[in-house]
Amino acid sequence: MEKNEYLLLNRIYQDCEIGMQSINKVLKKIKDENLKKQFEKQYDMYEKVFNRVDAIAMSNNKEVKENGFFKKFKQTAMIYISLWTDNSARHIVEMMIQGTVMGIVDTIKAGKDLKPKDENLKLLHADFLKIQEDFYEKLKKQLAKV
After folding, report:
1. Contacting residues for 128 by C-beta, under 8 A, at least 6 apart
2. Do the beta carbons of residue 66 and residue 101 sit within 8 Å?
């Protein structure tokens, strides 16, 4: 596995980790069952990608690295502060839209900058981007309802 491919694999891993952590934090505040189910499905999708990353890393004798303490702390603090001021369903959906858009942008840039050659990694990258884009579309529809 080339260095750039390892970097892309690690980036996807960390982005999944952030997505799953964010969803875990907001799930506790969601009262709407349909919205909760939507976030749980998205969590499951991130977890599947997370596991695929692990499998690719293991098959290449690589170890992916979790996000650092400060990144995790910053993300957690931002979510809790934001929810402290407004924990309405609308605000939660808005927050998740913003985070998802950031993830989409990061995924697109990573694929362009790191240019994987491995077909499995290309497919993983494309799948991860599609998952995020689908979640974004669902969130937009949900925003119109809340």
Report:
1. 12, 15, 16, 49, 107
2. no
Round to whole Å and give the CA distance between 138 and 109: 23
Sign of CA dihedral 143, 32, 19, 123: negative
- What domains appear along the chain, each with residue ranges and CATH number? 3-145 (1.20.1260.10)
Number of Cβ atoms within 10 Å of the Cβ of 74: 12
Distance CA 54, CA 64 (A): 7
Task: State the 10-residue block means of pLDDT for the chain, 146 residues long.
Answer: 90 92 89 91 95 92 78 68 81 91 94 92 95 95 88
Q: Are 27 and 39 in contact (CB under 8 A)?
A: yes
Residue 132's pLDDT is 95
Which segments of 28-88 does DSSP mark as H helices, in order?
A: 33-59, 69-85
Give the pair of three-digit tokens for residue 5: 């491919």
CB atoms closer than 10 angstroms to residue 19: 25
pTM, two decimal places: 0.87
